[in-house]
Amino acid sequence: EVQLVESGGGLVQAGGSLRLSCAASGFTFDDYAIGWFRQVPGKEREGVSCISSSEGTTYYADSVKGRFTISSDNAKNTVYLQINSLKPEDTAVYYCTAEPDFFLLRAVVAGLRRYEYDYWGQGTQVTVSS
Asked: Cystine design at 12: which of 5, 16, 25, 110 (Cβ 3.0–4.6 Å)?
């Protein structure tokens, strides 16, 4: 059974940092890309970043480029999202998903393709106060 568990969210002041984790199980981690998305109530889910677990290739949405860093620890089947210089507009629930095709996931994160993924974690809340 595919499982994705996000953690690491919290309440921080603007300018602060957080490190989110996405722990994966139930599939061959090295064969998948992991993507981070975020959602604010009443708005569509927004792609943030993704990484190929096998190649280490990464992609970032323009809105987070330079502030967010995605990384993968394949020994722990976990992907991290380091978020620096947090802004109030980063406030959202952050989710991760898994996709075997990195280029498809990159297109979805970039908003160039719509794709409904079956597996999501429960999300982790990030709240940034001004």
From this structure: 16
The 10s digit of each residue's pLDDT in 92-123 is 999 999 999 999 999 999 999 988 888 899 99
CA 51 vs. chain centroid, Å, equals 9
Q: List the one residue out of 57, 53, 34, 43 whose CA is nearest residue 109.
A: 34
105 phi, psi to nearest 5 deg: -60, -40
CB half-sphere exposure, 115, CA atoms < 13 A? 22
The string of pLDDT tens digits covering residues 68-86 is 999 999 999 999 999 999 9
The CA-atom distances, in angstroms, between 52 and each of 28, 39, 63, 79 are 13, 22, 20, 10
